[in-house]
Amino acid sequence: RKPISTDWAFCQIVDSHCYDEEAMVYYVHAVGDHNDARPLEKGLTTGWCSWYHYYADISHDSLAKNAHILSKSRSSIGFNVCLIDDGYMTSWGDWTSLKPGKFVKDGGMRVLADAIRSKGMKPGVWLAPFACDKGSDLARQHPDWIIRNDAGRIANSANCGKFFYGLDATNPAVRKHVYDTIRRAVRDWGFDVLKLDFLYASCLEGNGKYDPSMSRAEAMHLGLRTIRAAAGCETFIIGCGCPIGSAVGFADGMRVSCDTGPTFVPEFPLPHWDNGTLPALKGMLRNTMTRAVIGHRWWHNDPDCLLLGETTSLTDDEVVSAASIIALTGGMLLLSDDMEKVSEKRLSVAKRVFPLTGVTAVPLDLHSTANVMPSILRLWCSERTAKTAAESK
Q1: DSSP secondary-structure letter at 358?
Q2: Whether the Cβ atoms of residue 47 and residue 305 lie closer than 8 Å to each other
Q3: Is 197 a catalytic site residue?
Q4: Residue 23: its pLDDT value, please?
Q5: Containing H/E element for 316?
């Protein structure tokens, strides 16, 4: 008989009379060791992302303006990354087709990367390497790259923002396209940080694939291996929209929450009762706390951006709460406002949580809270921290 094999299983025997605040840590360390995770090699990321103020309406001028303001604030909030998010390209998939009139025509992305680097920060860029828009040149030229469901229709990308196509990671031609896209961003454009979004699009459900014998997990692994090979060891990769366990050993940072947003709970037309998956601050805070245990053990957790601007409907208390959770969980810290319009009062919130400790608090009521929102976190201080605090009294 053919032996039955499964994924690795982890068994942990716990003494019923022993209280362990962070029992999951043993499993997390075992997974990290098995997958060669190296979360502490590249330092913490503190910076700015263009998305939550500008969304897709970005330009060379707006990005350069914010990079200049960030550089002047580095003494108080040590920004080390300036990240260009979605909106520079004409369509997803057509990554070299920059929006006309908004970016330098020749070498526009290289010009921006060099400008950011000249301000003392690492340049970062957003890509969705396994996705493309319906009207993109890529979709028209390579319809055979697109994953289809069992009925032969284009597979559902399951995104509340828009419907897009997933590119089949089992197809060698797709993997070459992805390799070339990542390589171009790092080598030709000069970006040190890559925020790679909608990575799940490489393994959408459906048998309409180049190699139907390959499982979705295998396709995901192949896609991530292609990305890391193209990016090289030194590039800081932030995974986003990615099945979390599959990226251990590949990603340096990982989004561990749903998108944040300008409101505390989702607002119409989104259903306000869905606080777990739709863009809003409450879901972002909940997932940041419940997944804190994997931070600095698999990668640096990305809790999503801290929104400071008064253009949101967030109250002062909600902004302070967001900053506090980000600080306590010790992950990445990215702002995402028009920095020219952030008041000194709101900016002081970010200044108070910088520098990040790199130490992760433990949610003590993770399994006992009634509303799945932890409210008690313990942050252990080192002997050095305790001594410094005592001396300052």
Answers
A1: -
A2: no
A3: yes
A4: 80
A5: helix 316-329
Q: Is 188 part of the annotated catalytic residue set? A: no
- Distances 244 to 31, 136, 255, 283, 302 between C-alpha atoms, Å: 12, 28, 9, 17, 12
- Which pTM does this prediction carry? 0.93
Catalytic residue among 259, 302, 304, 337: 259
Phi, psi of 48 (to 5 degrees): -140, 145
- 8 Å CB contact between 120 and 77: no
Q: What is the DSSP letter of 276?
A: T
Residue showing tokens 């923002």: 161
Other Cβ atoms less than 10 A from the Cβ of 78: the count is 16
Mean pLDDT per 10-residue segment, the chain (393 residues)? 71 74 87 90 89 96 96 88 97 97 92 96 98 97 96 88 93 98 98 98 93 94 98 97 95 96 90 83 94 94 96 95 94 95 95 86 85 86 51 39
pLDDT of res. 386: 46
Catalytic residue (one of 85, 197, 252, 337)? 197
Token digits of residue 376: 């008690």
Beta strands in the chain (DSSP E): 46-49, 81-84, 122-127, 131-132, 165-166, 193-196, 236-239, 253-255, 300-302, 333-335, 362-363, 377-378
Contact present, 132 and 143 (Cβ < 8 Å): no
Q: In the beta sheet, which residues pair with residue 335?
A: 48, 306
Q: Nearest Cα to 123, choosing from 213, 39, 206, 191?
A: 191
Torsion angle (degrees, nearest 10) of CA 155, 246, 121, 103: -10
Strand-by-strand arrangement of the 300-302 sheet: 300-302, 253-255, 236-239, 193-196, 122-127, 81-84, 46-49, 333-335
